[in-house]
Specification:
By secondary structure, this protein is an alpha+beta fold.
């Protein structure tokens, strides 16, 4: 993997120019297997993912079927994956894009066979706190036909179809619409958001 600061600077520039950045080889295969084992050990603690925000939060298997586990910043799964380069990324985004990012939230996510997530935006209608979406895929043996592709809908362009290959990092503006197609095997990722602290009124 390239130097964390250089990687972050390149990602920031691509997000600034295109609204998204896609990087392969963030983790070698051994690291992917190590992180995947950590995630599998946490599976008993995963819960059905919800949709909506605050008082509108609900589960709806017609829209979203994955299961998630919220990560704290002191957990090994976080520190050995996203935590390696995230400080550089946040600094770069704030300097280049003036986003005012001062908070984050990350989760481990698993899509079982048949799971999907219909088209949506990560930025909520009643809050602009989420600025940037970050996804790190942990599927070292992913192959054609396994499904689970993320479809990123870009303004005035053809949708971008992204295969969840192990070690692949996707970063994009949280206002962009996207969806996850049905997976045909277990699909693992670490997903989260760089955000501004929400004001409590």
């Amino acid at each position: 993997m390239e130097d964390s600061e250089l990687l972050a600077n390149r990602i920031v520039q691509e997000v600034y120019e295109k609204g998204f950045s896609l990087t392969d080889g963030i983790l070698d295969t051994a690291s992917q297997h190590t992180l995947l084992k950590m995630m599998e050990d946490l599976i008993p603690h995963f819960k059905q993912a919800s949709i909506g925000h605050q008082q509108d939060k609900q589960t709806n298997a017609e829209i979203r079927k994955d299961k998630i586990y919220w990560l704290s910043e002191d957990e090994n799964l976080y520190r050995q994956s996203i935590g390696l380069f995230l400080p550089h990324l946040i600094t770069g985004l704030n300097r280049r894009c003036f986003l005012g990012i001062n908070a984050q939230e990350f989760m481990a996510a698993v899509y079982s066979p048949g799971d999907f997530y219909k088209k949506h935006r990560d930025a909520f209608r009643d809050s602009d706190a989420r600025k940037i979406t970050v996804i790190l895929y942990l599927n070292p043996n992913w192959k054609t036909g396994d499904g689970g592709e993320l479809v990123l809908h870009l303004p005035d362009k053809a949708p971008l179809i992204i295969t969840p290959l192990g070690g692949r990092l996707l970063v994009f503006e949280s206002i962009l619409e996207h969806e996850v197609l049905a997976s045909h095997t277990n699909r693992y990722s670490i997903t989260g958001w760089l955000k501004q602290t929400e004001l409590v009124v």
